């Protein structure tokens, strides 16, 4: 998606340790009009899939998942929580993921009443690096018996291989911007053609 690539080039900041900061429009301050156009792109890509639920992980995936849901007939968005709370009740699917940006492991939880074998899921997230966070969401879908119809990613760090490994496993991964390389010294960002 050229618009997203242009925004990353114009407003993104490359930091040491393979960090791409896009907080001016994607994961701190949200450009909702951009999110809507991203949702339209995913709806076009996955138009032939019987998606009845969108799954994401808190917190940065929620905004883009909600915007995308509007393009799929207002399907519900379920977000995996990163911590137990008194609001989580009943039986739950739980797995552990490692966050690249937070550099730590944490549990992710989805109440069983929100995900079942009847669901055809589109997973949406803001970033895909090595694929470990997505692995956790796929594990939850597997535990629920849900069918994963596809994965929509805003920004994939293609050089880290997570997306390619998921594609090799047969998942339809639609990343709107795939970063091939980035240089923290120059700020240069190259995208996959």
Automatic annotation (TrEMBL):
UniProt-annotated location(s): Cytoplasm
Main localisation: cytoplasm
Pathway: Purine metabolism; XMP biosynthesis via salvage pathway; XMP from xanthine: step 1/1
The UniProt record lists the keyword Hydrolase: no
UniProt catalytic activity: XMP + diphosphate = xanthine + 5-phospho-alpha-D-ribose 1-diphosphate
Gene Ontology BP terms: purine ribonucleoside salvage; xanthine metabolic process; XMP salvage
Pfam families: Pribosyltran (PF00156)
EC number(s) per entry: 2.4.2.22
Sites where the protein binds 5-phospho-alpha-D-ribose 1-diphosphate: 129-133
Binding sites annotated in the UniProt record for xanthine: 20, 27, 157
Biological role: Converts the preformed base xanthine, a product of nucleic acid breakdown, to xanthosine 5'-monophosphate (XMP), so it can be reused for RNA or DNA synthesis.
Family named by the database record: Belongs to the purine/pyrimidine phosphoribosyltransferase family. Xpt subfamily.
Name of the featured protein: Xanthine phosphoribosyltransferase
Organism: Bifidobacterium simiarum
């Amino acid at each position: 998606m050229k618009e997203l690539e242009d925004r990353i080039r114009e407003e993104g900041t490359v930091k040491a340790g393979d960090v791409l900061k896009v907080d001016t429009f994607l994961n701190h301050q949200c450009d909702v009009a951009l999110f809507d156009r991203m949702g339209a792109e995913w709806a076009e890509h996955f138009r032939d899939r019987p998606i009845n639920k969108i799954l994401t992980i808190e917190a940065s995936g929620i905004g883009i998942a909600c915007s995308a849901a509007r393009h799929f007939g207002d399907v519900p968005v379920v977000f995996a929580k990163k911590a137990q709370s008194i609001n989580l009740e009943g039986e739950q699917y739980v797995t552990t993921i490692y966050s690249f940006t937070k550099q730590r492991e944490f549990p992710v939880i989805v109440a069983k009443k929100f995900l079942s074998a009847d669901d055809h899921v589109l997973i949406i997230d803001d970033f895909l690096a090595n694929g470990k966070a997505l692995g956790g969401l796929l594990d939850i879908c597997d535990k629920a018996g849900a069918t994963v119809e596809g994965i929509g990613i805003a920004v994939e760090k293609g050089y880290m291989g997570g997306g390619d490994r998921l594609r090799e496993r047969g998942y339809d991964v639609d990343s709107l911007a795939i970063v091939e390389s980035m240089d923290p010294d120059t700020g240069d960002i190259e995208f996959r053609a």
